[in-house]
Specification:
Layout (H helix, E strand, L loop, with lengths): L1 H29 L3 H13 L7 H16 L1 H6 L3 H15 L5 H5 L3 H19 L3 H21 L8 H13 L3 H13 L8 H12 L5 H14 L5 H13 L2 H14 L4 H15 L11 H18 L4 H23 L11 H32 L7 H20 L3 H17 L1
Helix pairs in contact: 1-2, 1-3, 2-3, 3-5, 3-7, 5-7, 7-8, 8-9, 9-10, 10-11, 11-12, 13-14, 14-15, 15-16, 16-17, 17-18, 17-19, 18-19, 19-20
C-alpha cells in the first residue's frame, strides 16, 4: 500500500512539474518574451513523454509565431513561421476537443501564419525578389489549403495569392510553374477582368508553344466561356486553324466570326487576304477553278473594310494589287502571241495583241487610284510604322511600274523619287 502511495505521489509531482513548465512557457508568450517561451517549450517537448500533449504543441505554435513576427528574432530563426505551422498541425492532430484553444484565440495564430507569409511575399513581389516571393506565396497557399480543409474558412482558393505566385514564377522564367498557378485560376473560371490575360497566356503563349493542342484548346474554350465578348478568342481560333492548314475549315470559321461581329474590319480584311492568297497564284494553272469568283469576293470585302474604316491603308493596297495583277495576267497572255521564226504576226494576231494591251492598260489604270490614295493618306504623315512604310513603298513601286508601262515618264519619275525617299522622310 505504501508502494502504491509512493507511485501516485511521484506521478503527481511529475505532472505538477510539467504543468509548471507549460505555465511558464505560456507566461512568456503572454509577456511577448518569445525567445524564452521557445526555450521553455522546446525543453518540454524534448521529453518523449510530452510529445502527445496537444497544449504543448499549441504553445510552441504561438511562441514561434511571435518569433516570426519579430524582425530581430526571425533573423536568428528564419524558418520560425513554418515551424509554427507544423506545430499547429500537430496540435490539431492531437487535440480531442476540436481545437478548442485555437477557437478561444479566435483562430488568430493560424491567421498570423497565413498573413505573415502573404505580407512578406507581397513585399518581395514589389522588390522583384521573385524566387523568394514565390516561396512565401506557396507557403501561404499551403496554409490556406489547410484552413479550408479544417473548415475554418469559406475561401477555397485565394485568387490574389495564386495570381501573384504565377506572376513571380513567370518573372523568374519558370513557365511550367507559372502555368500551374495560372491554370488553377482558369480552371476555377475566375471572371474578374484583371484575370483575362491568364487564359490568353495559357492558350497561346504556353500550350501553343509546347505544341499541346488539347490544352491550348481547353484554355481557349475556358477563356471564351468566361469572357465571351473579348475578340481575342476568335482571332486565336483562326490562328490555330491557319496553322493546321485546313483552308476549308479556316474559311468556314471566318464566315462564322464575321457573322457574329460584322463590323470588325480586321477580320474581314484578314479573311480577304487569306482568300486572295489561295485564289491568286502567279501560275494560272495553280489557281483553283473558281479563282475569278473568289477574287471578286475579296474585292467586295476590301470595299467593305474601307466602308467601315476609310483610312485603312492595307485594304487600298490589296485592291490596287488585284487590279494590277489582272493587268499582269493579260500582259502574260499577250506575250504568248508571237510570230513564227523568221515570220510575222497575222493581222488577227496583231489585232488581238492590241486588244490585250488595251485591256491590260485598263486594269493598270484601275489600280492607280488605290495606290495614290495610300500616298494621300500617309505619304506626308511623317514617321510611319513598319507596316505603313512597307505599304507606302509597295504603292510607290507599283505606281512607278504602271506609269512606265503606260508611257507617262513624268509621273513615273515622281513616284520613283518618292520610293527612294521613303526611308529618309518616314
Amino acid at each position: 500500500m505504501k508502494k502504491f502511495t509512493l507511485i501516485v505521489l511521484l506521478a503527481t509531482v511529475a505532472v505538477t512539474a510539467f504543468a509548471q513548465k507549460i505555465d511558464k512557457a505560456k507566461d512568456y508568450v503572454t509577456k511577448n518574451k518569445f525567445a524564452e517561451a521557445k526555450t521553455e517549450i522546446e525543453a518540454v517537448l524534448a521529453d518523449p513523454k510530452n510529445q502527445k500533449n496537444a497544449e504543448a504543441w499549441y504553445i510552441k505554435c504561438k511562441a514561434y509565431n511571435g518569433i516570426a513576427a519579430d524582425a530581430g528574432l526571425s533573423a536568428q530563426t528564419p524558418d520560425a513561421r513554418w515551424t509554427a505551422f507544423e506545430a499547429l498541425k500537430k496540435y490539431i492532430e492531437l487535440d480531442d476537443k476540436a481545437g478548442i484553444l485555437l477557437q478561444f484565440d479566435k483562430y488568430q495564430p493560424v491567421m498570423d501564419i497565413y498573413q505573415g507569409y502573404y505580407r512578406i511575399g507581397a513585399a518581395q513581389f514589389n522588390e522583384q525578389k521573385n524566387p523568394e516571393a514565390l516561396a512565401n506565396f506557396k507557403s501561404c497557399l499551403t496554409v490556406g489549403e489547410f484552413m479550408a480543409k479544417q473548415g475554418w474558412t469559406n475561401v477555397k482558393m485565394d485568387t490574389t495569392v495564386v495570381l501573384y505566385a504565377g506572376i513571380v514564377a513567370e518573372r523568374a522564367k519558370n513557365k511550367d510553374e507559372a502555368a500551374f498557378y495560372y491554370g488553377k485560376l482558369a480552371e476555377a473560371k475566375v471572371n474578374s477582368k484583371e484575370y483575362i490575360d491568364i487564359y490568353k497566356w495559357l492558350a497561346d503563349f504556353y500550350y501553343q508553344d509546347k505544341k499541346d493542342v488539347a490544352n491550348s484548346q481547353k484554355f481557349l474554350g475556358l477563356g471564351k466561356e468566361v469572357f465571351p465578348e473579348d475578340p481575342f478568342w476568335a482571332t486565336y481560333e483562326l490562328e490555330m486553324l491557319r496553322d493546321g492548314g485546313d483552308k476549308k475549315a479556316l474559311f468556314a470559321k471566318y464566315e462564322e466570326v464575321i457573322a457574329q461581329n460584322p463590323t470588325n474590319h480586321e477580320n474581314i480584311f484578314n479573311y480577304g487576304v487569306e482568300m486572295y492568297q489561295e485564289a491568286y497564284k502567279p501560275e494560272i494553272k495553280e489557281r483553283p477553278t473558281n479563282s475569278v469568283e473568289i477574287i471578286a469576293k475579296v474585292e467586295a470585302q476590301m470595299k467593305k473594310v474601307i466602308e467601315l474604316k476609310p483610312e485603312y491603308v492595307s485594304a487600298y493596297l490589296v485592291l490596287g494589287q488585284i487590279s494590277y495583277n489582272r493587268g499582269i495576267d493579260v500582259n502574260n497572255v499577250n506575250k504568248t502571241i508571237r510570230p513564227p521564226a523568221g515570220g510575222k504576226l497575222k493581222p488577227e494576231e496583231l489585232k488581238k495583241k492590241e486588244e490585250l494591251r488595251t485591256e491590260a492598260g485598263k486594269h493598270f489604270d484601275a489600280a492607280i487610284p488605290h495606290f495614290e490614295k495610300i500616298d494621300a493618306l500617309i505619304g506626308s504623315k511623317g514617321k510611319l510604322t513598319g507596316t505603313e512604310k512597307q505599304n507606302l513603298k509597295e504603292a510607290y513601286d507599283l505606281l512607278t511600274t504602271i506609269y512606265d508601262v503606260r508611257g507617262n515618264k513624268e509621273k513615273m519619275k515622281i513616284y520613283e523619287e518618292k520610293f527612294i525617299n521613303v526611308d529618309k522622310q518616314h
